[in-house]
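User: Can you predict the 3D structure for this chain?
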Amino acid sequence: MRIALTGTPGVGKTSVAKKVSKILGLEHVNVSKRALEIGAAAGEDEGSILVDLDILKETLEKMDNIVIDSHFAEVFDSDFIFVLRCEPKILFERLKRRSYPEKKVKENVEAEILDYCLIHALENHPAEKIFEITENPAEEILSIVENPVKEKSLAFGSRTQFLTEENLTLVE
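Assistant: Here is the predicted structure, written as structure tokens:
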């Protein structure tokens, strides 16, 4: 089984990926760390690791029984793609607490408001394989993996609407 957890930085991917992988007995693959381990780090941009996607894809396609953890996990072949979502106000405060530069905070909050990770997942996988997760992420993911009900997938539409005037004031 291959599970991809994606979402804007700060939504809780790593915490959830560790919990889900432990419960399901799968290997947790943090893509940034793996890129450094296998020599697929191609540089750095504003504190983020740039990776050689071809090397990573080649490495990960040989692996099974994994939980892929990255803000671009949706580009890898997976059985399930979970897009973790977070209220923009909460995300804004989390990223500030992490001491992200103001520009990065606004870029990431804007990406969350505009459904960037969700849209990118749809560009890479059929909607039936993609699940939007907003609350109780580990429990919801485990429930879907155990019983993958199509009605919970993006084939039946998105469950969030973060594009509001109030949220847009966060990125002005």
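The chain has one domain: 2-171. The two ends are 42 Å apart (CA to CA).
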